[in-house]
Amino acid sequence: MVEIIKIVVLFGFMTLLGALGGFFFKESSKHVGKHKSLVINLMTNVYLYIGGTLYLFSAVINIWLLRFLDYTFVLPLTSLTYIWTLLISYKFLNEKIGKMKIFGIVSIMFGALLIGLSA
Fold it and tell me: How far is it, in rounded angstroms, from Cα 63 to Cα 61?
């Protein structure tokens, strides 16, 4: 039972880090100045490094989970990232969440659950 709890927590943490990585990439795109070249702006953009670091940590956790679980189980469940993305975009980017977005995410999660249970 303890192992299952660890796996659930790691999946939640891994997918949250991935969603936050995407959020910081979005933030990096907002902070690209107009007075320098794009390459220089990106190289000096702290949001880009934060996003990349979060993605890296997410990938490391994903690799660790793949050591113990089937690929056909791990990969579909990474779609939990969509839930985090929806919540982050609503809270911090003031994006609207309509019925179609919710239906789409519920459909993806249902499909991922079916694939995960059959693995």
Answer: 5
Q: Tell which phi-psi region holds residue 8, choosing left (phi > 0), alpha (psi between -120 and 50) or beta.
A: alpha
**Residue entry with tokens 């059959």:** 118
User: Tell me, what amino acid is at 97?
Assistant: I
Q: Is 5 exposed, middle or buried (0-12, 13-18, 19+ CB in 10 A)?
A: exposed
The DSSP-derived string for 73-119 is HHHHHTTHHHHHHHHHHHHHS-----HHHHHHHHHHHHHHHHHHHH-
Give first-to-last CA distance, the chain, whole Å.
Answer: 19
**Pair of tokens at residue 117:** 């249970």
Q: pLDDT tens per residue, the chain (119 residues)? A: 678 888 889 999 999 999 999 999 999 888 776 666 777 777 788 999 999 999 999 999 999 999 988 888 888 889 889 999 999 999 999 999 999 999 999 998 888 888 877 76
Q: Is 45 helix (H, G, I), strand (E, B) or coil?
A: coil
Joined tokens for residue 98: 């309509």
